[in-house]
Fold this sequence. Notes:
This protein is α+β, with helices and mostly antiparallel strands. It has 17 helices and eleven strands. The protein has helices spanning 3-27, 54-65, 84-93, 105-111, 121-137, 143-161, 171-187, 196-212, 215-222, 224-227, 233-258, 267-277, 288-319, 321-334, 350-363, 395-399, 442-459; strands spanning 68-73, 76-82, 100-101, 372-373, 378-380, 383-385, 390-394, 460-463, 477-478, 482-483, 490-493. The longest helix has 32 residues, at 288-319. It comes from Sarcophilus harrisii (Tasmanian devil). It is found in: Endoplasmic reticulum membrane; Microsome membrane. Its EC number is 1.14.14.1.
Amino acid sequence: xxxxxxxxxxxxxxxxxxxxxxxxxxxxxxxxxxxxxxxxxxxxxxxxxxxxxxxxxxxxxxxxxxxxxxxxxxxxxxxxxxxxxxxxxxxxxxxxxxxxxxxxxxxxxxxxxxxxxxxxxxxxxxxxxxxxxxxxxxxxxxxxxxxxxxxxxxxxxxxxxxxxxxxxxxxxxxxxxxxxxxxxxxxxxxxxxxxxxxxxxxxxxxxxxxxxxxxxxxxxxxxxxxxxxxxxxxxxxxxxxxxxxxxxxxxxxxxxxxxxxxxxxxxxxxxxxxxxxxxxxxxxxxxxxxxxxxxxxxxxxxxxxxxxxxxxxxxxxxxxxxxxxxxxxxxxxxxxxxxxxxxxxxxxxxxxxxxxxxxxxxxxxxxxxxxxxxxxxxxxxxxxxxxxxxxxxxxxxxxxxxxxxxxxxxxxxxxxxxxxxxxxxxxxxxxxxxxxxxxxxxxxxxxxxxxxxxxxxxxxxxxxxxxxxxxxxxxxxxxxxxxxxxxxxxxxxx
Length: 494
């Protein structure tokens, strides 16, 4: 090692120690942070976290340090909430104080800090209020959107019939349906399942999910300033989002040409009208760039998460044919074969409803939610948490609580059924997170999962090319999200 490298390493170590001292002095006298493992200079506790299985690492640390503990990831202190009581107390009981979005370098990089996902404060409140109102106006949670989902479910069945019962990878087919629902809301379009432009968009979202769930991105989020200018998949994510940006920008330009304020057609029209209302306000947050990144956020939340849940769910049903058989019996008894499933059927189908809940619980799709941050200096339990501190709520620790869900590592619909076979609600069911930052599209996602699953199983028997006992359901990545393994299945018409 030459002298210049030794000097550089020495300077880096000195700067790191200085930052740690400044951080300590800032909080001195205000109270103590929650306990946690001893951290190393510069890298913090990164070596104590398995980046291929972060939820498991957090569970191990929680056993030693308790349900509220501190980690240093890179130069940043984060507070982990582990277990239902800690998560509920923070996100629900003290929701306003835990309502900010935590620091997510990769999302801030690819979105330029725009959109609703990484916004905070008054800006976030205005954007969320507008999005919720507009989505409701276009039917989210209402009969009108249910009809759209039912129609898309029929299109899905037609496409699955084209596989003629041969083994197929369901990834793109299952992605088309929820993506088309979002397309209908955002820019009132429906794409054919073979449309190459549409399939390219789906491929981009799938690739984005894989990369942001990879270990490299977890490292990048800890050391963004150090790694930003180095080669790595964070640059690929940026290129992916730029391509999606261009796709949506073309739709926005088309809407600007054809906008009729007396007859708004979709989300983009409503946003453009809002822009016109605020054009005299120089500081307005309603800009074209914000619109495009909000649309990307809605696509990301409403397409890839739902399609991944469908794909993972079918894999679990292949693994557990006895569960699939019971769903078929319930569908035959309640719906039959002559009409489309509807949301009213849900209350008469406790077993199917329980299975869908168990799929979401078991796959634990977004294990640590998106990070939160505290909006002010607060005392939480016996600890002090400075304003702006990132909070990681472990949803895994809630969804896998062994007191609420006996044998949580087993796929068991009985977790959501009482002794008489009726559906049993659980406060521990938090796949959409909880509190002020709960998923915007929760009601739409619940509707889609029920209608798509029941429509598929109303029309097909699922068959795996391999013996069910040999099917591996272990995710291939468990970073930001859990990515199911590749598999093939046969859709056999009933």
